[in-house]
Task: inverse folding
């Protein structure tokens, strides 16, 4: 792929090689030759096996479980290696941006780790960031470099449009996801409802009440990420108790840590639709209720547009 004499190369760390391969397939270019390994003492070594001088370089790496900190360090060291090898422009393609939930001081003496990660990425030498569905949109402002923020809603919505489900209502699992739920409902042409929940402590959820009508409806619960699945499974249970016919859940980032898979299996949720911003672990791949859709096409098109200096936002008009 060339544009006015420019060249493009795509490299990947170890967090989501499958997605990187799919993105390269969409663009019709090979995945760059780089070895990212860990020494026995835990240090990470990066060995670039091809020239990148003057090249427009994209590094695909989610800072995701099961090794958030390792993947973050891989990304930083790869950026440094490319910078020192005289790459023209370095774009960190981070489908899932870890530490995004630590985006503010919720109580005294809290760190703002999402801002810290933004500072570190910039200091390492990233010229641009391409990401999807940040936990809080204002994280874009933590960077002093351009950030292209992609949306997972169109991919998820298209999946459900094709199903032609009747008596549909989209439900936001909390007040923070209302805007996402409304955009999703607009694409499906249906109403929304909201679960008003109270969280007594981290990773513990107490469902309070439901704003809007779900009685006799087929419900789609939508969130940006599902971590331990407490919010989504308790919310689904409350919806059935309030007369919902069925509950399907969907999210952009399937973090699915700790007791998540067991909770999902034991829940009233009939299907969980997720995107491949995070590589599913084997147990999740084997769970029949999980459907995974790919973000490769939208990331490939965004990379093509950035490379050609075209508008990325037009993708979502």
Result:
């Amino acid at each position: 792929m060339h544009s006015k004499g420019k060249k493009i190369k795509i490299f990947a760390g170890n967090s989501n090689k499958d997605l990187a391969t799919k993105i390269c397939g969409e663009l019709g270019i090979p995945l760059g030759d780089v070895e990212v390994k860990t020494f026995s003492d835990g240090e990470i070594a990066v060995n670039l096996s091809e020239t990148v001088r003057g090249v427009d370089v994209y590094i695909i790496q989610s800072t995701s479980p099961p090794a958030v900190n390792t993947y973050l360090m891989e990304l930083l060291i790869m950026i440094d290696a490319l910078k020192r090898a005289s790459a023209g422009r370095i774009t960190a393609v981070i489908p899932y941006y870890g530490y995004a939930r630590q985006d503010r001081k919720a109580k005294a003496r809290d760190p703002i780790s999402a801002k810290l990660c933004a500072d570190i990425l910039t200091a390492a030498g990233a010229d641009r960031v391409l990401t999807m569905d940040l936990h809080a949109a204002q994280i874009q402002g933590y960077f002093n470099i351009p950030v292209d923020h992609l949306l997972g809603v169109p991919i998820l919505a298209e999946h459900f449009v094709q199903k032609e489900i009747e008596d549909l209502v989209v439900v936001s699992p909390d007040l923070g996801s209302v805007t996402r739920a409304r955009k999703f409902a607009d694409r499906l042409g249906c109403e929304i409802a909201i679960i008003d929940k109270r969280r007594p402590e981290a990773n513990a959820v107490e469902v309070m009440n439901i704003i809007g009508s779900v009685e006799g409806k087929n419900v789609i619960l939508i969130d940006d990420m599902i971590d331990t699945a407490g919010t989504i499974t308790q919310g689904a249970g409350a919806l059935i108790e309030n007369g919902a016919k069925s509950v399907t859940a969907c999210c952009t980032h399937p973090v699915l840590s700790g007791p998540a898979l067991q909770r999902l299996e034991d829940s009233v949720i009939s299907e969980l639709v997720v995107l491949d911003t995070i590589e599913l672990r084997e147990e999740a791949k084997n769970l029949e209720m999980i459907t995974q859709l790919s973000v490769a096409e939208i990331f490939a098109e965004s990379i093509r547009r950035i490379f050609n200096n075209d508008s990325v936002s037009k993708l979502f008009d």
In short: DSSP finds nine helices and 15 strands in the chain. The mean pLDDT is 94. The two ends are 26 Å apart (CA to CA).
